[in-house]
Structures are given as C-alpha cells and as structure tokens.
Amino acid sequence: MCLQSLSRCMHREAADALAEDDALAPVIAEHGPLALEPAEDIFRRLVVSIVRQQVSMDAAEAIRTRLFDAVEITPAGVLAASPERLREAGLSAAKVEYVKATAQAFQDRDYDRSSFEGMETAAVVDELSEIRGVGPWTGKMFCLFCLGRPDVFPVEDLGVRNGITAVVEEELSRAEMTERASRWRPYRSYAALYLWRVTEK
Q: Which of 5, 12, 13, 129 has the lowest tally of Cβ within 10 angstroms?
C-alpha cells in the first residue's frame, strides 16, 4: 500500500508506466517522477496560457510579470483594466482582446473548477474554444495545468513536437505523433511533461 499522497502515487505510477517505452525510458531515468498539479486559480493560469501563445518562454515570463504587477488578475480586474494599461504591460492588441474575452466569459458563465467536472477533455476544449483567442492549444493547456488531467496530448505544442521527434529519432506528422502517443495512455499529460524536459536541454 502506498503511504504517499494519492497525487504522488499517480506521479510514480505514470513514470513507471511510461518508462516501459524505450523512447521515454532514458528521459524518465534522468528526471524521475514529474508532478502534474492543478493550478489553484484556473483563471490566472488560463491567462498565463494566453500570454504564452506564440512567444518564447522568456518573453512570456517577462510579460506575465509585468501584467500581474499592473492588473488584478481576476475576471473583474481584467475587465476594469483599460486596453492601454494591458498594452503597456506587454500584451499585443490581439491578446488584449483575448484576455478581455476570457474575463468576460468567466464572469458571465461563473466558471470555476466544478464547471468542468464530468466533461470529457474534448468537450472542455470545445467549450473554451467559444472564447475569442482560445483554441485547441490553449484549451489543452487548461486541461493539463488548470484541471490537472493526466491524459492530455497537446500535439499542437511545438515543444512537445520537438520532444517527440527527439526521443523517437524520426520525423513524424502530427497525426503520426498522436498515433505514437496513444501507447502512453492514460498518462499522456505526463509524457508531455517529459517531452518538454527534452527540449529544455
């Protein structure tokens, strides 16, 4: 019987299961079990994902820091902030629209973590994709990092694609990557964490 917390048990189980794949085994041996923990504030974490769209991690972190210092990152706080203030924090004009639309949706629909309980991951992505600026990549990041779902494969992410190319040592299409990742069920989110580690080197 595992005496650790349930989440830590899952981290270990995921690492052990994924290590059965020879492609991932060396990465897992190097890094050990990785943690997948849901964010405490799902709105704030979704805003972070929007900030990270199509920019480098370093640039995104700089913008996130300025934005979080300048504005209260709640639906009401973002809606109250002027577009000029959001632009001064580093958001593009498009991302100003996106975070405003996200704040409006959270306020109108009263979203919280329980809003998505019982929904399939694809349904969550579809639901969030109704918000301007939220597409499949952002929706999957939400399922991974806001809801902590263990079996999400964000093939839309460049880092994941680069990671899978590195570990399988073969150029694959997105469809082929998704098929290759099917062997990592039900821990594809954890596989993504390891693939990101590969690209951090």
A: 5
Asked whether residue 20 falls in the same domain as residue 88, the answer is no
Q: Using one digit for the tens of pLDDT, what is the confidence trace for 61-84?
A: 999 999 999 999 999 999 999 999
Question: At residue 164, what is the residue type?
Answer: I
In a domain, 142, yes or no: no
- DSSP letter for 158, please: H
Same domain? For 53 and 92 the reply is yes
Measure the CA–CA gap between 194 and 201, rounded to whole angstroms.
12
pTM over 0.90, yes/no:
yes
Residue 72: is it exposed, middle or buried by C-beta count within 10 angstroms (0-12/13-18/19+)? exposed
Are 26 and 66 in a shared domain? no
The contacts of residue 101 (CB under 8 Å, 6+ apart) are: 131, 132, 133
Tell me the residue length of the chain: 201
Residue with tokens 């990557």: 177
Q: 60 pLDDT exceeds 50?
A: yes
Cα(125)–Cα(129) distance, integer angstroms = 6
